[in-house]
Inverse folding.
């Protein structure tokens, strides 16, 4: 199982994002986990990230839900996350100038 501190990662990741905010960052980082891992909430509905959850996770005032943690450890997610970032993040939400600094810090 891979473990990382979401808040620490999100804070460094935000340095490379164009117009960052906590919700945008959470959605970018969790979208491949949710979609590739078929992650649903306790009602069986597709998981959504709201402003409150994003803020609490970023401030480390709440834990990441277990279903997201479980999905993040799914082999399909692990294999697909690189393609997701290449296709959806690198050219669309990262600032070229800022991204180099962000990658160096990660």
């Amino acid at each position: 199982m891979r473990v990382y501190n979401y808040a620490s990662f999100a804070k460094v990741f935000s340095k490379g994002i164009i117009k960052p905010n906590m919700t945008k960052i959470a959605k970018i980082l969790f979208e491949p986990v949710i979609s590739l891992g078929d992650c649903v909430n306790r009602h069986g509905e597709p998981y959504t990230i709201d402003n409150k959850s994003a803020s609490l996770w970023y401030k480390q005032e709440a834990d990441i839900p277990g279903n997201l943690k479980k999905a993040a450890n799914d082999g399909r997610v692990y294999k697909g996350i690189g393609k997701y970032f290449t296709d959806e993040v690198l050219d669309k939400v990262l600032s070229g100038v800022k991204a180099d600094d962000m990658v160096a810090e990660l």
Summary: The helical segments are 6-13, 22-36, 51-58, 66-72, 75-89, 96-105. The chain has one domain: 6-105. Residues 6-105 form one domain. The two ends are 20 Å apart (CA to CA).
